[in-house]
Amino acid sequence: MMVIATLRAVSGWRMVCCPAGLLVVAGLLAGGCSSTQPVLYPENAEFLSTLPDVTDQRGRFREVFCAVLEERGETVPDYRPCEAALTRYGAESGGTGRPVDLGKSHRHLVAVVVPGVGFDCFSDWLGMKDTVVDHVRQFGYDMQIIDVESLSSSAANARMIRDSIVAMKGNGRNLVLIGYSKGAPDILEAVVAYPEIRGRIAAVVSAAGAVGGSPSADQATRSQLELLEHWPGADCSTHDGGALESLRPQTRKTFLEQNPLPTDFPYYSLVTCPERDRISSILQHGYKKLSEFDPRNDSQVLFPDEFIPGSSFIGCLNADHWALAVPIERSHPFIGKTAVDQNDYPREALVEALLRFVEDDLDARAGR
To answer: 219: pLDDT confidence band, cut at 50, 70 and 90?
Structure first.
C-alpha cells in the first residue's frame, strides 16, 4: 500500500512517498504531460512474449468490466466509461462473446486483500469506508482485509496470512487472495510455505503487485521507512523491519527462481498501465525516476514486475498505483484536488468485475 507521510509543513509541502512500500522524497511538482510525450502503450506493440509464461485473457475481463460499468453506471463512485478505465496495449485478446452474468454469485467468492507497506500506519488517517464490501455483498460475494505488519518482511507476513486463513470460517475453496503492492509477494510466500491453506484458495491475484520488487527499494533505507511510525495515530510499531529487503528486485528474483508456485489454483495479474495524464502530481517524481528503468510504470512499480509467472493477464488499468486501491481524495478532498489529483477510479465496480471474472473463469475451467 502506498503511503503519504507529511514530514513537515513547509512551502511547497515536503513529503515522503512510500512507493510500493518504498520511500522516495517527492515535492508537489506539477509534472504535466506534454503533447510530445511518446505513447506509452501502443496498440501495435508486441510484449507478451517477453513476460514469464503469461497468457492473455484481457478480452474476457474487458467484457465483464464493461458490462458491470454499463449496468451500474453512475450509481458507483468515481464512475468512468469502460474505454477510459482500461488501457489498450498491444494486440489484446478477443472476448468470448459469452453473456456476462450480473446476478448473484453461486460460488460465494470472498476477496481476501493483503495490503502493502504502511497500511496500518495510516489507515486511520485514510478513513476508508466499507463501500467496496457493501457493494460486492449485494451480489453474494464478500471481502475482507488481512491484518499484516506493514513494515515486516514477506516471510513474517506470510505466516500472518496463513494464520488468518486457518482461522476463517468454512472449509470450501472460495477465497480469492488479492495482493496489492507488497501484498502480492507476501501472498506468494504464504502459498509456497504453507500448503495447508491451499485447499481454501480459489485463485490468487496480483493487483499492481510488486511481484518482481521495485528498483526504488534499492535506493531507500530502513530508517526512512520507519519514519512511518511517527505518522499521527500510527499503529505500526510491531515489525521485523524487513519490508524493504523483501521488495528488492534481487530478493524477489531469487525467491521466484527457488520456489515454484503451487498449481492448485489459477493466478491472475491485474496490472496498472496509466497514461501520463492519469498519474497524480505528487507521483510524477516517482514516475520519472522509475522511467530511467522502464517508462511503463505506475509511479511505484515497473510494468513487467507486476506479473505473477504463469498467470493470466486480465487487465491493463488506466490508473496510477495509488488510484487503484487508496481512495485518498474521497476522505481528503483538498489533497485530492492538489497533490493526489488523479485518484478517482471506480474501485467498487472493479472489485465486482474481478470477482465475476474469476468466477466465470473457474466455471469455464470446470466445464460449466
So the answer is: confident
Is the pLDDT score of 27 beyond 50? no
What is the C-alpha to C-alpha distance for residues 291 and 286, in angstroms, rounded to an integer?
A: 8
Q: Which of 131, 118, 61, 53 is nearest to 92 (CA)?
A: 61
Give 123-140 as a 3 state SS string.
HHHHCCCCHHHHHHHCCC
Count how many residues are written for the chain: 368
Strands across the sheet containing 3-8: 3-8, 14-18, 24-27
CA of 68: how far to CAs of 61, 103, 174, 272, 342, in Å?
Answer: 11, 11, 21, 19, 22
Q: How far apart are CA 25 and CA 8, in angstroms?
A: 12
Angle at CA of residue 19, ends 154 and 301, nearest 5°: 80
C-alpha to C-alpha distance for 56 and 271, rounded to whole angstroms: 12
- Cell for 248? 528488492
Evaluate whether 237 touches 170 at the Cβ level (below 8 Å). no
In one letter, which amino acid is 29? L
User: Strand 142-145 relative to strand 312-317: parallel, antiparallel, unpaired?
Assistant: unpaired
Query: What is the widest separation between alpha-carbon atoms in the chain?
Result: 61
Assess whether pLDDT exceeds 90 at residue 23.
no
Q: What is the pLDDT of residue 117?
A: 83
Cell, residue 171: 472449509
Model-level pTM greater than 0.85?
yes
